[in-house]
Specification:
Blueprint lengths: L9 E5 L6 H11 L5 E3 L3 E2 L14 E2 L2 H9 L3 E7 L2 E6 L1 H8 L3 E5 L2 H10 L4 E6 L3 H11 L4 H15 L7 E4 L3 H14 L2
Parallel strand pairs: 1-7, 1-8, 2-7, 3-4, 8-9
Antiparallel strand pairs: 3-6, 5-6
Helix pairs in contact: 5-6
The structure holds guanosine-5'-diphosphate and adenosine-5'-diphosphate (ADP).
Family: Belongs to the guanylate kinase family.
Catalytic activity: GMP + ATP = GDP + ADP
InterPro entries: GK/Ca_channel_bsu, Guanylate_kin-like_dom, Guanylate_kinase, Guanylate_kinase_CS, P-loop_NTPase
């Protein structure tokens, strides 16, 4: 009898906007030569940033279509974040987990709560910025958002951080190399 193949793990990554979660995740994916990790591509109604590609960074959509996708039960979870909708597709996640591929979800604390309801075994990691001042500096340096968008994201940072204790692990993203090593070690521990 063939041995039942091992299922993939579900990793939830959250952090205040600008902390560096996308940077850490992209670094993981570029070092993942064997394709062990898959980053779930969410749907969003927020505007495309320069350099972002539809279907790669997000599936960019309008509100009407997003509401249709909710109706047709397409999402494992969805939430309103910074005045836009964001949602995680259900089908592809289940498929990949069955294939033994680990899934990375870059979602906010509301999404994390909802995913835990369906996947209590999910492993959740909260990434912390060194300080609020440094967080603002990173958002400014990134040069992807206008000043009022940055202000809105900063206003939400404290409330996002108030959920850090709901996560299995917390990683401080002070020095990128150090934080990355800790991030990889943590993921590998579960493999
Ligand atoms: N609940 C939920 N949150 C999401 C999803 N996709 C992205 N987010 C979160 O939405 C927030 C804003 O994401 P984004 O606009 O890309 O900004 P960034 O975090 O500054 O790069 C972040 O906290 C993401 O983790 C999703 O599918 N569901
Ligand atoms: N450890 C770090 N030190 C300094 N800058 C960082 C660090 N990690 C990420 N950054 C930079 O901070 C900005 C925000 O990072 P990003 O990954 O887009 O954040 P998030 O996905 O959490 O919103 C980017 O310009 C990125 O290059």
């Amino acid at each position: 009898m063939p041995k039942p193949s091992k299922k993939g793990h579900l990793f939830i990554i959250s952090a205040p906007s600008g902390t560096g979660k996308s940077t850490l995740i992209q670094k993981l994916l570029s070092s993942d030569k064997s394709g062990k990790y898959y980053l779930s591509v969410s749907h969003t109604t927020r505007p495309v940033r320069p350099g972002e590609v539809d279907g790669v960074h997000y599936f960019f959509t309008d509100v009407d279509n997003f509401l249709r996708l909710i109706e047709s039960n397409e999402f494992l979870e969805y939430a309103e974040v910074f005045g836009n909708y964001y949602g995680t597709s259900k089908r592809i996640i289940k498929e990949k987990l069955e294939q033994g591929i680990n899934i990375i979800l870059d979602i906010d604390w509301q999404g994390a709560r909802n995913v835990r309801k369906e996947f209590p075994e999910a492993i959740s990691i909260f990434i912390l910025p060194p300080s609020i001042e440094e967080l603002k500096q990173r958002l400014l340096n990134r040069q992807t958002d206008s000043l009022d968008v940055i202000e809105r994201r900063m206003a939400k940072a404290e409330s996002e951080m108030s959920h850090r204790d709901e996560y299995n692990y917390q990683i401080l993203n002070d020095n990128l190399e150090r934080a990355f090593d800790e991030f990889v070690a943590l993921l590998e521990k579960h493999n």
